[in-house]
Specification:
With about 800 residues, the chain is mostly beta strands. It is about 5% helix and about 60% strand. It is globular, with a radius of gyration of 28 Å.
């Protein structure tokens, strides 16, 4: 409570900002004009003082720092530029209400006008960075996961289906501000099936404020979908054909109809993708069930065919000038068939040879529904109440069939006629997750210098999971007892927060907040009634941020936050998924939540951003670690807790404009890590330096051509006791804007150098389970052949411009909970 008292004390003594200029823009018919440019200029020489965008209601507010004589200039695509008469702000009269201004439409024939994106690809903000994905030529035809892996500081581990931010796990993913409460591999699958054509931007939040959930020790990734509020009926459609290892295709359409009070919008995208990967393993280990110490060479190939559907629909209706209601729904479904052909040779020392040949056929069917209704109510000037009700549904059905042979050097069947070595096995796995969320947020502008925010939130999650593996023994299907799982999890989380934003002086602002979360998690076996987990946890999460403007373009920031990473449902559940005859994937009901303390120092200047982040994680969760059963006959691949993780990271984003036709952006994240692993046969401490690098170069060429070259590289890193060598990719694209409003053609190439291969190593730091020392080489599809995509896209309706006008929308207060890691 000391921090809250300090915030209130600072509020009482905070001086007011110098002044404020406010007003509202509408059309001649009285309809608000959102996201129009408003410039505050010195009347003496029309030099720029400050700039702002109108909000969705057409309102704006600018806070000048000094007295003087000013004028306002308004502009927006499709409207005539308007400049106001000069006015004076003094210490005695620091406020200026410009009232409501109706902009006149620009009726001139636009002809060959092309609307160029004004926002950079990477855009800094106080709590992180925004990636304006539609500004990249490589977005069309890509998945949300493809776009995410090209973002600064983001690393996708395809072998373990995990996401890291600034080389740290514990990332929460949101869609339109709603947390996605699913396991990490399910979230990765969801993003891999989601078309990037429907995404407006991605927000990488390393130090989110108290109005966000405290979950996500490494931060949050918010994926903001398109919601075009341009007046009239308009939309876009696109079709993509591609080829890598095999063919790919995407087709989709966005459509919106907006009137004075009602906005209707929707989109549909279908994608088909044929994917290939292969795996090569060399290993030395002690496996008593196979005869003792042995050396292994294994290789397998995986082929997958995916069919994905994405649907979004929504409506916003303004009841009156103070009240808006709305509803939206997003539905995703995926159907995939996977065939993995595995081969392994076992040299059991000193001279026994075993050969394993297996075929695993898997079918994965899942569907995901996110729905929401909301109300926004302006109580009075500067005071607003938002109410949200959300419902989330996820179901995943993943059966599999295993055909295998385990023979010795004489061709005779190895092992006994038991479930472990049965030539025919089949797996069953089904998970259903339902989440209900109720949320209320209140904000009030107490005066020109102080803004107060507060809110409450309740989340209830019910998850069920059933899985088991059966073996065909003597013509009968028998359950493998060690693989049976039937779990019901219920989790309730209640949260309350308060936050205050104080303008200490014209150059200095303070944001301080406090969030309290209480979680009750219970896991039971519905058949036996046995409780495997009953955990109650209440934690207070303070955060504070201080920023100071050094001039109109430079700013310093200092922030502290405390966050948590709770184990996901699949982390805790004792499910079992077949890997090979001696290894299974499973959960860990003994996992503890991780608590993280972050201190960030940042500097921004003319789009250049630099930051230092100091983090301390207690009990951080690491996934896909190996351990062994007490009987030493089965290897578990499961999540574990480390003792601690300390890190000091540096991040830089440097945009460079070479000339009018060539712009570049470079991002670097480097960090020093120190941690302790305790789940291995021998605990170990490790310190290492890691870094990741992103770059993007954009070229505006003659003949309405444009081109892009981009790439990323992740240096060597460690996931607990697992070492991952560095790897990277270079991509390229070219785009042609067609004449007469005929759309655009775009060609992109992913992994030009065919370099996207991953090398991981177990046993390099300490003694692992079964004394395993191995090397795993993963080759993704593009190492066989770069992935080529050709896209045709066209906008229609609206004002007939060559490209649909994209609007800068603020992220909503977190409204979705799906979880990943």
């Amino acid at each position: 409570m000391k921090i809250l008292h300090l915030c209130l004390l600072l509020c009482g003594f905070a001086p007011a900002a110098f002044g404020q200029v406010s007003g509202r823009l509408t059309t001649a018919a009285g309809q608000p004009i959102p996201f129009a440019n408003v410039l505050l200029l010195k009347s003496s020489d029309t030099s720029l003082v400050k700039a702002a965008l109108t909000d969705e209601k057409g309102a704006y507010r600018i806070e000048p720092t000094t007295p003087g004589q000013y004028l306002l200039r308004y502009s927006n695509v499709g409207y005539q530029v308007f400049t106001s008469a000069p006015f004076i702000l003094t210490a005695a009269q620091p406020q200026k209400d410009a009232g409501t201004l109706a902009l006149a439409e620009d009726t001139r024939q636009l002809g060959e006008v092309v609307v160029r994106a004004e926002k950079p690809l990477f855009q800094p903000r106080t709590d992180g960075m925004v990636v304006n994905v539609q500004n990249s030529l490589l977005t069309k035809g890509s998945s949300a996961l493809n776009v995410l892996e090209r973002s600064p500081g983001v690393m996708i581990d395809y072998r373990n289906n995990s996401i890291m931010l600034n080389s740290k796990s514990g990332v929460m993913v949101m869609i339109n501000g709603k947390l996605v409460r699913m396991s990490m591999d399910q979230v990765v699958s969801l993003l891999n099936s989601m078309s990037a054509d429907n995404i407006e931007k991605i927000e990488l939040l390393t130090t989110p404020g108290s109005r966000y959930d405290a979950d996500g020790s490494a931060g949050m990734i918010n994926i903001v979908l398109k919601n075009d509020r341009q007046q009239g009926t308009h939309g876009t459609f696109s079709v993509t054909g591609g080829y890598g290892w095999r063919q790919k295709g995407t087709a989709g359409m966005n459509l919106a109809h907006n009137t004075k009070r009602t906005n209707l919008y929707g989109s549909y995208t279908y994608s088909m993708n044929k994917i290939y990967s292969d795996l090569y393993i060399t290993s030395a280990q002690d496996m008593p069930v196979l005869g003792g110490r042995m050396e292994v060479i294994a290789w397998d190939t995986t082929q997958q065919v995916q069919h994905n559907h994405d649907v979004t629909m929504g409506i916003d209706h303004q009841l009156n000038d103070k009240t808006t209601i709305g509803a939206n729904v997003a539905y995703n479904s995926s159907r995939s068939n996977t065939t993995t052909i595995a081969n392994a040779g076992y040299n059991v020392l000193p001279d026994s040879l075993l050969q394993y040949n297996g075929v695993v056929n898997g079918r994965n069917r899942w569907q995901n529904l996110l729905s929401s209704i909301y109300l926004e109510k302006k109580l009075r000037a500067g005071e607003q109440l938002n109410l949200d009700l959300d419902y989330l549904y996820f179901n995943n059905n993943n059966p599999s069939e295993v055909f295998s042979q385990f023979v010795n050097e004489h061709g005779a069947r190895a092992g006994e006629n038991d479930s472990l070595f049965a030539p025919l096995q089949r797996g069953f796995a089904n998970t259903t997750i339902q989440v209900g969320v109720a949320k209320a947020d209140y904000s009030r502008q107490l005066n020109a210098a102080i803004k107060l925010e507060a809110g409450i939130k309740g989340t209830y999650t019910r998850s069920t999971s059933t899985s088991h593996i059966e073996s065909l023994i003597n013509d009968k299907w028998l359950n493998r007892s060690e693989t049976l799982n039937n779990i019901l999890m219920k989790e309730g989380i209640g949260a309350a927060y308060t936050s205050v934003n104080v303008q200490l002086n014209p150059a200095t602002s303070l944001v301080a907040g406090l969030r309290y979360e209480y979680a009750h998690t219970r896991m039971d076996n519905p058949q036996t009634g046995e409780s495997t987990l009953n955990r109650k946890l209440g934690v207070l999460f303070p955060n504070i941020s201080l920023s100071r403007k050094l001039n109109e373009e430079a700013e310093l920031q200092l922030a502290y936050s405390k966050r948590i990473s709770r184990p996901s449902y699949n982390d805790l559940a004792s499910y079992v998924i077949y890997s090979d005859p001696t290894a299974v994937y499973t959960g860990n009901p003994f996992l503890r939540p991780a608590i993280t303390h972050n201190i960030k120092l940042g500097y921004n200047n003319k789009g250049y951003t630099f930051s230092l982040l100091f983090s301390r994680d207690n009990n951080p969760i690491i996934r896909y670690q190996i351990s062994q059963t007490a009987a030493a006959n089965l290897l578990y691949i499961s999540p574990q807790n480390m003792a601690y993780l300390n890190s000091i990271s540096f991040q830089a984003n440097v945009p460079v404009k070479v000339n009018d036709w060539w712009t570049m952006s470079y991002s670097l994240t480097g960090a020093l890590y120190n941690y302790k692993v305790v789940h291995t046969l021998q605990p170990v401490k490790q310190t290492y330096l890691g870094y990741s690098f992103n770059f993007s170069e954009t070229f505006q060429l003659p003949g309405r051509f444009s081109a892009e070259l981009s790439g990323w590289y992740n240096a060597r890193s460690y996931n607990g006791s697992v070492k991952v060598d560095g790897f990277g990719v270079i991509n390229a694209g070219i785009k042609k804007e067609l004449n007469n409003n005929a759309g655009s053609l775009q060609l992109s190439v992913t992994d030009v150098l065919r370099s996207f291969s991953i090398h991981t190593q177990y046993g390099t730091l300490t003694r692992e389970a079964f004394d395993i020392v191995n090397n795993v080489f993963i080759h993704t599809e593009s190492t066989v052949r770069p992935v080529f995509r050709l896209t045709y896209a066209r906008s229609f309706g609206g004002n007939g411009l060559k490209s649909a006008v994209r609007k800068e929308g603020g992220a909503k207060d977190e409204r979705d909970r799906i979880r990943k890691e």
